[in-house]
């Protein structure tokens, strides 16, 4: 079923969102601070709004995708939100999402927050995921239209849940990127081919190690860190070796020093016989 949908913010992501909604046959109204970015979408059938307020007034579903929450507030300030669903797909923090939800509701609107787990080129394609939280009724009302953007996953009515999960997933991603860069530097320090190492050895290894994570997650939930895999004392020797090897090979150890400090503190606290999941108690002390 075709819906009227407005998009505020036509950067790389907002333009991709608008394009996917146009492709799915929706009537899309667009606004961007620099008006020229609307031109390609208008050429594809989108309606140009002269102001953000006009865009918000044009549709029951108003999607915002701008630089940050401050920019989102700036764009929505003074817009007629009464009776509208505001879906904020701008990347932010849980506390910002909660504050924005309260503000939208104070304006008579209904709030949905979203976390986009995709790059613009993936929007509308298999593999793209968008996390949602906030009003369940609003999500269900627009779920079909939103499915044109990415597979939708509703996490709950607490507005900060999408941002929290988005940040948690990015945290895992940046950790993996940090490990990859350090590994690549070590291989390159001997003049060896990084591509061959990555494809043939590192990626299969990371897949095998990732398979351990659900079990570690259960240990974290149970706060039971007994291990039959490898204890912290063994890993302490391993990390010491890594840091020394980095230095010997002319590779900066900086990315790994904080993890080593956390592991050292946990062992010093008398937990050397535990497994690696126990390090969470140093990161987030009770
Ligand atoms: P861009 O830099 O391409 O676009 C930023 C957008 O924000 C532009 O439309 C810009 O308008 C607008 N903007 C900035 N400041 C203001 C303001 N004060 N008032 C009104 N509009 C403003 O970024 P993206 O499109 O890539 O990112 C948009 C959001 O999507 C971000 O929160 C980002 O984290 C999120 N996201 C992006 C992903 C990506 O891969 N690109 C992936 C997942 C999430 P103008 O054109 O006038 O400068």
From TrEMBL:
UniProt GO MF annotations: DNA binding; NADP binding; nucleosome binding; oxidoreductase activity
GO cellular component, one term: chromatin
Gene3D superfamilies: N-(1-d-carboxylethyl)-l-norvaline Dehydrogenase, domain 2, NAD(P)-binding Rossmann-like Domain
Ranges for domain NADPH-dependent reductive aminase-like C-terminal: 158-284
GO terms of biological process kind: transcription elongation-coupled chromatin remodeling
Family: Belongs to the HIBADH-related family.
Protein name in the entry: 3-hydroxyisobutyrate dehydrogenase
Organism name: Nonomuraea pusilla
């Amino acid at each position: 079923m075709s819906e009227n949908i407005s998009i505020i913010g036509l950067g790389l992501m907002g333009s991709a969102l608008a394009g996917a909604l146009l492709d799915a046959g929706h009537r899309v109204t667009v606004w961007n601070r620099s008006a020229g970015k609307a031109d390609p979408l208008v050429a594809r059938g989108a309606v140009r709004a002269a102001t953000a307020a006009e865009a918000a007034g044009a549709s029951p579903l108003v999607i915002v995708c701008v630089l940050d929450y401050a920019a989102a507030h700036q764009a929505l300030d003074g817009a007629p939100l009464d009776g509208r669903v505001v879906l904020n797909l701008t990347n932010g923090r849980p506390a910002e999402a909660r504050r924005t939800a309260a503000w939208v509701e104070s304006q008579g609107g209904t709030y949905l927050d979203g976390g986009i787990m995709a790059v613009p080129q993936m929007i509308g394609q298999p593999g793209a995921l968008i996390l949602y939280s906030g009003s369940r009724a609003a999500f269900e009302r627009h779920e079909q239209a939103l499915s044109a953007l990415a597979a939708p996953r509703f996490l709950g009515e607490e507005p900060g849940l999408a941002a929290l999960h988005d940040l948690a997933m990015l945290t895992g991603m940046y950790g993996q990127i940090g490990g990859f860069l350090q590994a690549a530097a070590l291989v390159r320090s001997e003049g060896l081919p990084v591509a061959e190492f990555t494809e043939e050895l590192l990626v299969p290894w990371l897949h095998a190690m990732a398979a351990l994570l659900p079990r570690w997650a259960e240990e974290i939930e149970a706060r039971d860190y007994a291990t039959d895999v490898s204890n912290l004392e063994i890993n302490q020797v391993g990390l010491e070796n890594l840091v020394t090897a980095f230095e010997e090979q002319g590779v900066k150890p900086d990315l790994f020093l904080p993890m080593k400090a956390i592991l050292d503190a946990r062992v010093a606290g008398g937990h050397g016989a535990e497994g690696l999941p126990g390090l969470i108690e140093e990161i987030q002390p009770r």
